[in-house]
From TrEMBL, chain A:
A GO CC annotation given for this chain: cell outer membrane
Name of the protein this chain belongs to: RagB/SusD domain-containing protein
CDD domains linked to this entry: SusD (cd08977)
The species this protein was found in: Mucilaginibacter polytrichastri
Lineage: Bacteria, Pseudomonadati, Bacteroidota, Sphingobacteriia, Sphingobacteriales
Location of the SusD-like N-terminal domain: 82-227
Keyword Nucleotide-binding: no
Similarity section: Belongs to the SusD family.
Length: 542, 993
């Protein structure tokens, strides 16, 4: 009997010993960093990370990031309340009215995505420096590229927030809170980083540098910084901009497309005009925050039948009629870039509206809009600059050109104009215009006198179902140049930036918008940033 | 420091008790008597440990052991007095006998019942913590969703609700308030026959009793999983002498929605067209009630269960078969479950070795309801036909997000099948008196298969050119469990001890795959040839797999002490290591508890009073925990994620996926509970009162951190502190107790006050003392609720309406109290204010049961008071701005008697949609007649019953049911898509053979 007990106790004891006393340490979803040492094979996967941050920073799906902020706070486009929604707690209307607060998603998205990019660059620089990532060849070039890329994120921050912390280190002590720098300090930092590192960048213009910072993308960024020097630092630097543009032009590696649309085609990756693009793909960048969904955001649900989409578009963003009215009717860009008129299905049958007052009536986009607070399906021309291919998925495959050759020419033109060389400016602007007036080439020519004129053709003033007013546009210095930028670069997520440089962003009215304070050239720092870093001061006015 | 002092104090106390017991042992040595041995049992034949055996007229005596045995030396002519709380005292003359066996009969069930507590059982009389047990005879009757629904309205402080009428939805359980911000466990830990499980592990009809461990001093033995309380389910087993029998229970039920919203009808549309406020294109010439169109006319549910009991004292078994078919009111929503169970017991070596073997197999065949179809039914044009004259379904594919729900339901198949197999075995060895060694092991394998196919007639093809959409989700999970315990019990004179020690290991391994595809050449194969779709070949659609693995390693010990039934003490300690905290600096947590009880009625000063039969004061303090929901938060992680174009090809990037927090640990709940158990006037009135105060420290949350320098703007950390204070009271009255007529009435009441005490610590300083949470739904797209330091969880936070102007624009109140016109109101965060709270402050229940002759009747009523509900259905469907979808009739009502809401006002989350949620429900009525014919040979005690569930409600709430989702940090939101609650009528038959 005793033996039976003993053997049973023995069995229990063995079970006890056999069973585990170790906590599970195997993660099947992610890699525990301490259990991973990268090899040469992993380098590309590791160093490509911060480029993905530009995708969300500029265009992230449903994110109120750079592109949307620059568009819908400007006089070019608007997201009005639609019969099917697009109110979203009033955020798009506040963007239009310039009534945004520090709690808006826009501030949060731009801040967090830009700093995520910066943190990734800092981390990679630290890891490469300390041989934690085994980079065998081209180490100096890769480090320079990461520094220029990091500077590009600071370019986003200086443009929207001005006064931001500069952080260049990864191994900061626990609890470290970076101090805030002034906008001028941030400007000097970016310029110095670019000047030091551009010479080390690759000069290749091919697949190996596409979507990355080669030397010319670096110069394009530098040109942009000098173009905005007056806004960012208080002291303009037009010659600097001209020199940087010339560095790109004289290299002779880029050219204008014969047709503007080629630079915005679904397959635009081989365009000679693109200097730096954010690549997209309807399969590889199709989920969550990574897809680019402009076609979904601008077309009405009925247009699903036009392009045989697999999803119904959401019907929102459109042109502000006053902006469309500035176009010369002969300008190819008016018809090529804006979807207008009667809509048809893929077989050519006309489409009918389904909502509210236009239920059962022809769906024809008209250049009228009751206001930001009210619209029907037909109101407003839709954004069609980026080719929408038949059967497109939720995300588009068009790469987003952040810097293109036309912009180099126009930056140089504007700098020359402001620097007193109007005839060079006129030549350059004419060069860019020529492909857009193929039916009437004479209209392409712009004269120095026209560019020097202080009048924009934009008919500013309130223009909505509640109120109509008129404001002069003859007090805008180089107003014609601003118009030219509007026509060439519409829908490229930069109108706010140009309007600020020409002094109209916070001084004019359009559609339902009235000026609401000159401090609105900067966004407020996001509440969450202020809450977590006591060194940060909110921008004045907010 | 405080903790160490507590330990020292515990140690000192334990030492003192040991000393006292040794002294009493010495005092027993006497001379000139005979030695008497015996055993004390109750009338069911179960041994009674701890019975006091006294020699009449003296103080000398003994106590029975764990097996109910006693030995003592007494004069041969003396009389022995057996006393035991809850049992009638018995006196027996010794008459020179050396063996005296005694049977005691219980005279107060509220004291004599044995109650399951963690890793053991205690008599109710000995319990020193807040534990409530409900037996199957007191359960809610009818086609309940799961085991928890059996307790609705029965336990003070335990709120069980079914916010959805979906037959596949489970009960929601809230015990003593919200206890966590982001911990893994938001509901109580469920233990089934000693093994962790969940509410679907067993069929409700197989449950014998459920114990609820409410306070941390009782739940601390479950350590890091105990902070939301513990629900211990015990299944029916064979016991007693008349073992061989077959039990049958069957029922059929009919369900209906309690309330459905009032939508505009076809005639309302035509009136609007006549009035010129709607375009005539909207009249499609029919009148369709779309809610009816998506509902079943007479959804009948049925539950059938059969159980076999057999064997003898040495080997016996129970085997049962249970079939449940719950039929939802909406089309294509039902739940079928088949459960087979066998439980076998075998005893050998004179009862010193026991085996228990359990096998359980449950299979579910569900058709889940897609809540968007309800939304579609509400949005459909009431003048549209369900089908066109040619037999095809009415569709308007160009109307955004609008699809015929009847067509969806018929063109889409989505069966979800799952199973669960559980094997468990326990070996119990009693090698020497008082020592009990037990080993329990269990292996549970569960799996699911979720299939979906939308055919070529579906909207996905008509509108979206998908040409058939298929998806397959499959997975399997294996849970392993091992528990080893040793328990030693000893009675020494007036002292009774037990000492329990144990080790426990459990792990879980889950694997799942998912594949979707579209563009099929034919519907012929449905989902069964998923490779025929071409979308996968084009790089579209998803294919993925995932695996996760976690384990929990635990050591625990418990000591109980009982002195003369007068003073009771319990102390326990558990050490838990949770793999979620792997890599963190402190993965192991310590969870101690101490409880003390004092039976006042045993004191001399209460000796002569006649009012109280029993009065026991108890105090408990304990610490329980809650680990993080995700694993590996303490270490740096790298994840493959976004693609980047690299040298002309898209490659996946590898980047950090979180901010690591190595100081991460579990949430810790410190809880004090003071209770009073009483029995008055010979059990006429019994009950208990508990007050508690708990503080959860180190609340887990994704706190904002500065970015830069952090990569991500949030990090999961232990920062805040939350407090819950409350009172619970239960009073049971044996109102009438005659042979013919019995009436018992039980009232329970509870209140809980929750407060977020802090959101900061040394490392994480929240510069604003709040965070926002919840979701007011599309198209409003804003948070609904706020969690603020110094306030309750569940505060709604939005714009406050004071009226509307004559144009139908809201008049808003600014936080300073000033009313402003709609266009002057800034609509910013700073203009929001607290609009109400979604957690009831008071709960009450009133249960009555009657029996008259062969009739029995029970009525369960319950209510919740002082809280608000955010009615998102009204917010959306009462907005007149949207015209291409149907609206509620009330969309055309004047607000505040002034004006109809202006069409240009977008949907806004404001106080107009926050309603008083208080209600009183007559929930469960159960009437039965039992044929009591002892001379029937083959059928015994057949009973026919009629019962109802969710019978009747008194409330001012305008939605379907104010008992909405109360879980999480944004409770009290009546979701726009939620399946309306149902009322059920059931006819049941039961008998045994």
């Amino acid at each position: 009997m005793k033996n039976t007990y003993l053997s049973l106790i023995g069995v229990l004891a063995i079970i006890g010993l056999y069973s585990c006393t170790k906590l599970n340490n195997k993660d099947y979803g992610t890699i525990v960093a301490s259990q991973f040492s990268p090899t040469q094979q992993d380098v590309a996967a590791l160093v490509g990370v911060p480029y993905t941050n530009w995708r969300t920073l500029e265009l992230g799906r449903s994110a109120n990031a750079i592109w949307r902020t620059n568009e819908i706070s400007s006089d070019e486009s608007v997201i009005p309340a639609r019969p099917n929604g697009w109110v979203d707690n009033g955020i798009y209307q506040r963007m239009h009215y310039h009534k945004w607060t520090a709690d808006e998603d826009n501030s949060f998205q731009i801040w967090t995505n830009a700093y995520a990019g910066i943190s990734n660059c800092n981390r990679l620089l630290y890891q490469i420096d300390n041989n934690l990532i085994p980079v065998q060849t081209g180490k100096a070039q890769l480090e320079a590229e990461l520094k220029v890329l990091r500077a590009s994120f600071y370019y986003a921050l200086i443009d929207f927030f001005g006064n931001v912390p500069i952080i260049t280190k990864f191994d900061v002590p626990a609890g470290y809170l970076p101090p805030q720098s002034t906008r001028a300090d941030v400007y000097n930092f970016i310029i110095s980083e670019l000047k030091t590192n551009i010479p080390l960048l690759s000069t290749a213009v091919d697949a190996s540098t596409y979507g990355r910072f080669n030397k010319y993308a670096g110069f394009a960024l530098l040109a942009k910084m000098y173009l905005e020097a007056g806004v960012y630092s208080g002291t303009p630097n037009w010659p600097g901009c001209i020199t940087a543009c010339d560095s790109v032009i004289n290299a002779g590696k880029y050219a204008l497309e014969s047709v503007q649309a080629n630079a915005f085609a679904t397959q635009n990756q081989n365009s000679k005009e693109i200097i730096f693009a954010i690549p997209f793909d309807n399969v590889y960048t199709s989920d969550g925050s990574t897809a680019w969904t402009l076609h979904m955001e601008t077309l009405q649900p009925e247009n699903q039948a036009t392009y045989n989409f697999q999803n119904s578009p959401w019907g929102g963003i459109c042109a502000i009629p006053q902006f469309i009215n500035t176009f010369d009717p002969n300008d190819v860009r008016l018809t090529a870039n804006w979807i207008q008129g009667q809509q048809y299905d893929a077989s050519g049958k006309i489409l009918l509206g389904t909502m509210d007052k236009f239920s059962g009536k022809p769906l024809a986009y008209i250049n009228q809009l009751p206001g930001v607070d009210s619209s029907q399906e037909v109101h407003g021309f839709r954004l069609g600059k980026y080719q929408i291919q038949a059967g497109e998925l939720v995300g588009m495959s068009n790469d987003f050109p952040l810097f293109r050759y036309a912009d180099i020419l126009m930056m140089k033109a504007e700098s020359a104009l402001r620097n007193g060389d109007a005839s060079t400016a006129a030549t350059l602007v004419t060069q860019v215009r020529q492909r857009s007036f193929t039916n009437n080439p004479a209209l392409a020519t712009v004269t120095a006198a026209q560019l020097q004129s202080g009048t924009s053709v934009y008919d500013y003033g309130l223009r909505n179902h509640l109120q109509t007013t008129h404001e002069t546009a003859s007090d805008i210095q180089y107003g014609r140049m601003l118009d030219e930028l509007g026509w060439e670069f519409s829908q490229e997520g930069r109108r706010r930036q140009d309007m600020i440089r020409f002094g109209v962003f916070t001084s004019k009215s359009w559609l339902s918008h009235s000026p609401n304070g000159s401090y609105r050239t900067l966004l407020p720092l996001p509440t969450s940033a202020l809450q977590t870093n006591k060194n940060l001061k909110q921008n004045s006015g907010y | 420091m405080k903790k160490i002092q507590l330990y020292l104090r515990c140690c000192r106390l334990l030492f003192a008790f040991f000393l006292a017991s040794i002294m009493s042992l010495c005092a027993q040595a006497q001379d000139g008597n005979i030695k008497i041995k015996g055993a004390v049992k109750d009338d069911k034949g179960l041994a009674l440990p701890g019975v006091s055996v006294k020699i009449k007229g003296t103080n000398a005596g003994a106590q029975t052991s764990l097996e109910g045995d006693f030995t003592l030396n007494a004069p041969a002519n003396s009389t022995l007095v057996f006393t035991f709380i809850g049992f009638a005292t018995k006196e027996l003359p010794v008459n020179n006998q050396n063996v005296i066996n005694v049977v005691l009969t219980d005279n107060n069930q509220s004291l004599s019942e044995v109650v399951v507590i963690g890793y053991g059982a205690q008599r109710k009389a000995d319990i020193t913590s807040a534990v409530t047990t409900v037996k199957s005879t007191d359960f809610v009757t009818g086609p309940v969703s799961d085991g928890a629904a059996l307790l609705k309205g029965k336990v003070a402080g335990l709120t069980i609700s079914n916010p959805s009428g979906d037959p596949n939805a489970q009960s929601q359980i809230l015990l003593r308030g919200t206890q966590t911000l982001n911990g893994a466990n938001t509901g109580p830990l469920v233990i089934v026959d000693g093994v962790p499980g969940d509410l679907l592990t067993v069929a409700p009809e197989d449950i014998a009793e459920i114990s609820v461990l409410k306070d941390a001093s009782s739940a601390a033995i479950y350590g890091v999983r105990g902070s939301n309380g513990v629900i211990i389910i015990t299944t029916k087993r064979s016991s007693g002498d008349k073992i061989n029998r077959i039990d049958y229970n069957g029922s059929a039920s009919l369900s209906q929605f309690t309330r459905t919203p009032k939508l505009l009808t076809g005639d309302d549309y035509r009136d609007q067209i006549a009035q010129g406020i709607r375009d005539k294109a909207y009249d499609l010439g029919n009148s369709t009630d779309w809610i009816k169109a998506v509902s079943k006319a007479h959804p009948v549910s049925t539950i059938q269960s059969l159980s076999f009991n057999g064997g003898n004292n040495q080997t016996n078994y129970v085997a049962s078969l249970n079939y449940r078919f719950l039929n939802g009111v909406f089309l294509k929503s039902n739940h079928a479950q088949v459960t087979g169970r066998a439980d076998i017991n075998h005893t050998m070596l004179d009862g010193k070795l026991k085996f228990n073997l359990g096998i359980l197999n449950t299979n579910f065949n569900d058709i889940p309801f897609n809540s968007n179809e309800y939304n579609q039914a509400l949005m459909m044009n009431p003048t549209a036909p369900v089908r066109e004259p040619d037999g095809s379904f009415y569709q308007q594919p160009t109307n955004f997000g609008y699809q015929n729900p009847v067509a969806d339901m018929l063109n889409q198949e989505q069966p979800q099948n799952s199973y669960r197999q559980k094997y468990n075995a326990t070996i119990t060895l009693l090698p020497v008196e008082g020592l009990r060694l037990a080993a329990t092991g269990s292996y549970t394998k569960s799996g699911y298969e979720n299939l979906y196919y939308a055919n070529h007639q579906d909207i996905s093809t008509l509108r979206d050119n998908q040409n058939g959409v298929a998806s397959i989700g499959q997975g399997q999970s294996i849970d392993r469990f091992l528990n080893l315990t040793a328990e030693y019990s000893k009675s020494l004179g007036d002292h009774r001890f037990t000492l329990l020690g144990g080790y426990e290991y459990q792990d879980d391994d889950t694997f799942g795959t998912n594949i979707t595809n579209h563009d099929f050449p034919t519907d012929y194969f449905g989902v069964n040839q998923i490779q025929l779709g071409t979308a996968q070949k084009n790089g579209q659609d998803v294919i993925n797999s995932s695996r996760s693995n976690s384990n929990l390693i635990s050591y625990f010990a418990r000591f109980t002490y009982n002195y003369k039934e007068k003073y009771m003490l319990l102390a326990s300690m558990r050490i838990d290591g949770a793999s979620q905290l792997y890599g963190a600096s402190e993965p192991y947590g310590k969870f101690p508890s101490i409880q003390a009880g004092w039976r006042l009625t045993k004191e001399n000063f209460m000796k002569d009073q006649k009012v109280f039969d029993d009065l026991k004061l108890r105090v408990g303090y304990g610490i329980t925990g809650n680990q993080p929901a995700q694993g590996f938060l303490g270490v740096g992680l790298l994840g493959y994620g976004n693609y980047v174009l690299y040298n002309g090809t898209w490659i996946q990037t590898l980047s950090p996926s979180q901010n690591a927090n190595p100081s991460l640990r579990w949430e810790e709940k410190h809880d004090t509970d003071i209770g009073l158990d009483f029995s008055l006037l010979k059990g006429f009135i019994t009950g208990n009162i508990d007050v508690y105060n708990s503080r959860v420290t180190g609340l887990l949350y994704n706190y904002n951190v500065p970015s830069p320098p952090n990569l991500y703007p949030t990090t999961q950390a232990n920062v805040g502190t939350m407090q819950n204070r409350g009172l619970e009271a239960v009073i049971n009255v044996q109102a009438v107790n005659t042979k013919k007529f019995r009436w018992t009435s039980s009232i329970n009441f509870s209140t809980n006050r929750n407060k977020l005490v802090s959101l900061s610590n040394d490392l994480y300083q929240a510069s604003v003392p709040y965070f926002t949470t919840g979701w007011a739904g599309s198209p409003v797209t804003t948070f609904s609720s706020i969690v603020q330091v110094g306030h309750n969880i569940g505060d709604f936070y939005g714009f406050k309406v004071t009226g509307v102007d004559k144009n139908g624009y809201w008049i808003y109140q600014e936080p300073d109290g000033k009313s402003v016109a709609y266009n002057d109101f800034n609509h910013a965060f700073s203009d929001k204010q607290v609009l109400g709270n979604g957690l009831p402050k008071f709960y009450a229940g009133w249960n009555n049961s009657f029996s008259y002759g062969n009739w029995d009747l029970s009525i369960t009523m319950r209510g919740a008071f002082d809280y608000q509900v955010l009615n998102l259905q009204r917010l959306y469907y009462e907005g007149p701005g949207i015209i291409n979808y149907n609206r509620f009739k009330a969309a055309n009502d004047k607000l505040f008697g002034t004006a109809v809401l202006n069409k240009n006002v977008p949907e806004e989350f404001n106080s107009y949609y926050i309603e008083n949620g208080a209600f009183w429900k007559i929930d469960n009525i159960n009437l039965g007649y039992t044929f009591n014919k002892p001379n029937w040979k083959y059928i015994h005690n057949p009973r026919i019953g009629f019962s109802t569930l969710n019978t009747f409600i008194i409330t001012g709430y305008k939605g379907s049911d104010p008992e909405v989702d109360r879980g999480g940090l944004a409770p009290g939101i009546d979701d726009r898509f939620s399946y309306p609650s149902t009322r059920t009528f059931t006819l049941s038959v039961s008998a045994h053979f």
